[in-house]
Specification:
140 residues, mainly alpha, 7 helices
């Protein structure tokens, strides 16, 4: 059994995209499988909050680029088209959730982005900002 834990740990070190779902309870790198920032705690990063409130398409484009889901400009423009924006927002949120082993469902993601899109975009940006191995080019 200890060799199994070592195998999982080496997976984590070698490839930071394999997260919580492959680690058992004895490992030190397990996360709690929840978002690291609450949905409505917007004001702790004032600059990011202002940009997301005034131009959510900018933050969404940067989030998508960081997740390697296409270009910043293309995804930012998708955010401006009704109906397409909900689908694009839900798709990215689900990708982030799956990549970092955060609990939830695609239906829950869709409800969140349709009801409070700016808050979900901000929550995703904060999540991406705090994850290890992520290069973030944001200065706000």
């Amino acid at each position: 059994m200890p060799t199994r834990n070592i195998q999982y740990r080496s997976d984590i070190i070698a490839n930071r995209t394999k997260y919580e779902t492959r680690i058992d309870k004895e490992s030190n790198v397990i996360a709690d499988n929840t978002w690291s920032h609450q949905l409505f705690l917007c004001c702790d990063d004032c600059g990011l909050c202002c940009i997301t409130t005034l131009a959510p398409c900018v933050t969404f484009g940067l989030n998508a680029k960081q997740m390697e889901s296409g270009s910043c400009l293309g995804n930012g423009l998708c955010c401006l088209i009704p109906v397409v924006n909900c689908i694009a927002l839900q798709k990215l949120r689900t990708q982030i959730r799956i990549k970092y082993g955060i609990g939830g469902s695609a239906m829950n993601d869709m409800l969140m982005v349709c009801c409070c899109a700016p808050c979900t975009i901000l929550q995703e940006a904060k999540e991406l900002k705090n994850k290890p191995g992520q290069n973030i080019a944001r200065t706000w």
